[in-house]
Amino acid sequence: MKISLAASLLFSLIVHAQMPIVTSGKIAYFEHFKSTFVDTRTVAVWLPNGYSKNEKYAVLYMHDGQMLFDANTTWNKQAWEVDQIAGELISENKIKKFIVVGIWNNGQKRHPEYFPQKVFEQLTTEQQKLVSDILLKKERIDTAFEPISDSYLKFIVTELKPFIDQTFSTRTNRQNTFIAGSSMGGLISMYALCEYPKVFGAAACISTHWTGIYQLDDNPIPEAFFNYLKRHLPNPKSHRIYFDYGDQTLDALYPTLQKKVDTIMVAKGYTSNNWLTKFFRGKDHSEAAWAERLYIPLEFLLRR
Fold first, then answer.
1. Rounded mean pLDDT, 256-262
2. Domain total for the chain?
3. Of 46, 92, 134, 236, which sees the most CB atoms within 10 A?
4. What span, in angstroms and rounded, lies between the C-alpha atoms of 60 and 187?
5. Phi, psi values for residue 125, rounded to 5°
6. CATH number of residue 236's parent domain
7. Prediction pTM value
8. 15 contacts 27 by C-beta, under 8 angstroms
9. Domain that holds residue 118
10. Distance between CA 205 and CA 188 in Å, rounded?
11. In sequence order, what are the residues at sequence separation of 6 or more whose Cβ sits closer than 8 angstroms to the Cβ of residue 296?
12. Can you give the pLDDT at residue 190?
């Protein structure tokens, strides 16, 4: 990729009807960000007030980038309000200074990109067909389901991160590189931490969609996830993990599954120093709910 062209756009805001407007900081947009691993997409980099090349900033990579900043531009008129919440926490000196890399999801390919590939490969052929048939119907796709999350993570780690670190003033080490998302974005964040423990130091997995599909009964996916975590959770001495969940709408599927994950976390040596699971009674599966509590994972990931 030609860095020079992207660098020339560093602080220019692209005039586009669907681009978010932020209330704190500013955003550098990179439309049509190319990759050899996945399809082209938009990447938005949020910079806090006072961003300066004379300082170094931690980096938080977030999935579903089009849902992060401005409710006026989202399909459901909800957003995480990342710019507002992060800006307040930084201004109050509650967390270290950081930038946010919002990676747009890819529409119909969102589920294949976010579904942990090696977990799917643990399933039997019969189980894979069951999962595929359910997703074909629910996701309204017309080809058999096949995860491409390994390629998506290669895009982030080998193409996007080097570009971000060359273009912006960042702290490039593991201790200052984080990843976060909700629902399927929670799954891929957990998977990224496990697959690239030398790159990411912490992950926030919000309303993590442990079912992978949309049902608990006759679903082989959660057990496959649990087995994967038992083998691949990174060292608690050098990593931190945040989970949360509600109990309404799609989040109603998660309480029993998250408790099983919590049991695995304890068995693998995680403690309150490096792991936090929060339950939010009465909260649903929505950007509005996630925005209400976003300050908690941000303070956990970016604590000083």
1. 98
2. 1
3. 46
4. 16
5. -60, -40
6. 3.40.50.1820
7. 0.92
8. no
9. 3-299
10. 9
11. 242, 244, 276, 278
12. 98
